[in-house]
Specification:
transmembrane; 2 domains; 5 helices; alpha+beta; 7-stranded mixed β-sheet; transmembrane helix; membrane
């Protein structure tokens, strides 16, 4: 009876066979390290849902979007919140968002960043909508459309960018 296996499972079985024939533990370890560097083990970093919920509580969410960054064997998925915190200008919006996150127990890194270690490690960067180009054309258009639909003044909103850390 022939049993079908996935390509990855078949490769691991082959590695085991090589190890058993060689009877040398270093050969098996070398094989595993080689496989891991070839993209067999891909890691995806996502923001802890608790951190997203905490951040959403600091104001009214105008837009919630995701932004993916992929490099080597990792994908990082940032959560982007465009928020109204009741400010009259962009600088006040950043300061108010920063202050509210600190009040919730987030730790200050600098004037534009805070971090949380409740659950998984997350860093939040705060920015005005003046820096939209950094988020790419697709996300920039999505943010502009949401701001217009919400009838909000762009200079009174703040971008809350939650990034997962290892």
């Amino acid at each position: 009876m022939i049993r079908q296996t996935s390509g990855e499972h078949a490769m691991l079985l082959q590695c085991r066979r090589v190890y058993l024939r060689a009877r040398h533990p270093f050969a098996f370890i070398f094989l595993i390290i080689t496989l891991s560097s070839c993209g067999w083990f891909h890691e995806t970093l996502e923001v802890d849902p608790t951190a997203i919920n905490d951040a959403r509580q600091i104001g009214t969410v105008v837009l919630h979007a995701k932004s993916e960054y992929t490099w080597e064997n990792s994908t990082q998925i940032d959560e982007i919140l465009v928020m109204d915190v009741g400010a009259s200008d962009s600088k006040e919006a950043e300061i108010e968002a920063h202050s509210r996150l600190i009040q919730q127990g987030w730790t200050e890194l600098n004037a534009e960043q805070v971090e949380s270690r409740k659950g998984r490690h997350v860093i939040v960067s705060l920015d005005s909508l003046d820096g939209l180009e950094a988020y790419g054309a697709t996300l920039q258009a999505e943010i502009e459309k949401a701001v217009q639909a919400a009838s909000k003044e762009a200079d009174t909103l703040v971008i809350v960018d939650l990034a997962p850390m290892e």
